[in-house]
Amino acid sequence: MTTPGPIPRLAGRLRTKRADHVVHGTKTLIAALLTWVIVAPWSTGGRPYMAVATALLMVNASTVYRSVTKAAQNVVARVAGLILALAAAQLLGPTAGAVAVIAIIAVLAGPRRTAEDRLQIASTAVIALAATTADPMGSLISPVLQTFTGAAVGIAVNALVLPPLYLSESDSAVRDLARSMGTLLHDMGTGLSRRQLTSKSHTWLHQARSLDERLTRAEEQVRQANESLRWNTRCVAHTRRKESAFKDDDTFRALRGVSLQVRGIARTLADNAHDNHADHHLGHQFLDQYAETLQLAGAAVRTFAEPTPATSSPDASPRERLRGAIDGTLAWHDTMTDMIARGTLTKPGAWHVYGSLMTDAERLLADLDRTDTHRHAPTRTDTHRHAPTEVSPVRAAFGHAGLPDQGRRST
Questions:
Q1: I need a labelling partner for 73 at 20 to 30 A (CA). Which of 54, 130, 280, 286 fits?
Q2: Nearest Cα to 363, choosing from 373, 355, 375?
Q3: Residue ranges of the alpha helices (H) in 282-392?
C-alpha cells in the first residue's frame, strides 16, 4: 500500500478544515436562532442577549464533554456574579464603592477559581449592578434563567448536530510521529553504511531531540480525541470509532517509548563519533550490520502506525510487514549479541558502546512487539515469535564474558 505524499495530505487537511468551518457556522447559527426563539418571549424587553451569548459559548466548545463542563462553570460564575451584584447594590447602591467591592471580592475569590472565572464573576456583577437597584429579584432570576436556557440549548445543539470528533487528527498526528521516527532511523542506518558517522551524527542528534515537539503535538491530539468520545452521540452507532481511538492511544504510548530509544541511539552515535579514544571507535563490521538493523527498525516503526486496509492479502497487511521487519531486525540482533559474546568483533574497547546501541535497538523493538501483540489476539502462527524478555541478551552476554555493565548517558 502506497503512502500519500505531503501534497495530497495537505489538500485533504484543507478540505477537512473547510468542512469543519461550515459545520461550526451552521451549528452556531442554529444555536443562536433557537435560543432567541425560546427565550425572547419571556425575557425582559424581549432581549435574550445573555442566553444567546451563553449558547454560542457552549455550541463552540471543542468537545461535547467540554461544553458540559464549561456550561457548569459558566452558570456558577454568572450566578455568583449576580448574587454579588445584588448584595453590593443592597449595601452600597450603584456607586463607585460598590464597583470597588465587587472587584476586590472577585480578585480574592480564592485560588480554586481560575482567572477567567473570577473575571466573569466581576464583569457579570458590574453589568448587573445597575439593574439590581430597580428590580432586585427580577434582575437576578431573569439572567439566571437565560444562562441556564442558553447553556442547555448550546449543549444540545453541540451534542446532536454532528458533535465534534478528532479521531482523524489524532490518527494523522500519530502517523506523522511514526514516519518521522522511522525516517530518522533509516537515515541513520544509511549514513552509517556510507561511513558518514562523523559528519552527520550531530544532525541526527538534533533531529532526534526535535521529535519532542511532534511527540507533544501527538499527545495533545490523542488526548483531545479521547475527550471527544465522551458523551458523544456519534459513537453510539459507530463503535469502531472508539476502537480506532484506543488503537491510536496504544500506538502513541509505544511511540513515546520508542522516541527515548531513538534519542539514545543518536546520542550514543554522536558521542562515539567525537570520542578521542581511538580504541572506543566502532568497527566497520559492527557499523555495517547495525546500519542494516537501523534500516529494518525504521521500516518497523513506519509500518507500526499504518492502517490495516479492509481488503488485502495477509502478506501485504501492515501487521505482516511489521512482523517481518521486527523478525528481520531481531535476527540481526541475535547475530550481533552472539558476536559480542564470542569476542569476534574488532575494537574491544568499544564493547560498552556496542552494548548501549544494541540494547536501545532491542528495547525499541520490544515496545513495538509488546503493543502489537496486545492489540491483536495471538494466533498459532505467532507462537514462534520472539517474546520480550526482562534481561537483555546483550547484558547476558556481558555477564557471560565478565564485562562491566555500563550505565546510560543522559540524552
A1: 130
A2: 355
A3: 284-304, 318-342, 351-375
- CA–CA separation, 96 and 388 (whole Å): 72
The series of mean pLDDT values per 10 residues for the chain, 411 residues long, is 50 60 89 94 82 90 88 80 77 76 71 62 69 60 85 92 86 90 94 92 94 91 88 66 63 89 93 74 80 86 71 57 72 74 65 81 82 60 41 36 37 50
- In 3D space, the residue among 296, 364, 302 whose CA is nearest the CA of residue 325 turns out to be 296
Q: What is the DSSP string of 194-246?
A: TT-HHHHHHHHHHHHHHHHHHHHHHHHHHHHHHHHTTT-THHHH-HHHHHHHH
Q: What are the residues whose beta carbons fall under 8 Å from the beta carbon of 299, sequence distance 6 or more?
A: 182, 186, 321, 325
Cell triple for residue 174?
500519530
Q: Counting beta carbons within 10 angstroms of the beta carbon of residue 176, is it exposed (0 to 12), middle (13 to 18) or buried (19 or more)?
A: middle
Helix, strand or coil, per DSSP, at residue 282 = coil
Identity at 27, one-letter amino acid code: K
Instruction: Record the pTM.
Output: 0.70
What would the grid cell of residue 85 be? Answer: 451584584
Residue 16 is placed in which grid cell?
477537512
Written as one letter, the residue type at 182 is G
Q: Which of 357, 390, 205 is nearest to 281 (CA)?
A: 357
Burial of 53 (0-12, 13-18, 19+ CB in 10 A): middle
| Cα 324 to Cα 296: distance, rounded to the nearest angstrom | 9
- Long-range interactions of 148-152: CB distance < 8 A, separation 24+: 148/75, 149/35, 149/38, 149/39, 149/51, 150/35, 150/39, 150/48, 150/50, 150/51, 150/52, 150/53, 150/54, 150/55, 150/58, 151/54, 151/55, 151/58, 151/71, 151/74, 151/75, 152/71
Minimal CA–CA distance to 139: which of 86, 74, 84?
86
What span, in angstroms and rounded, lies between the C-alpha atoms of 25 and 291?
52
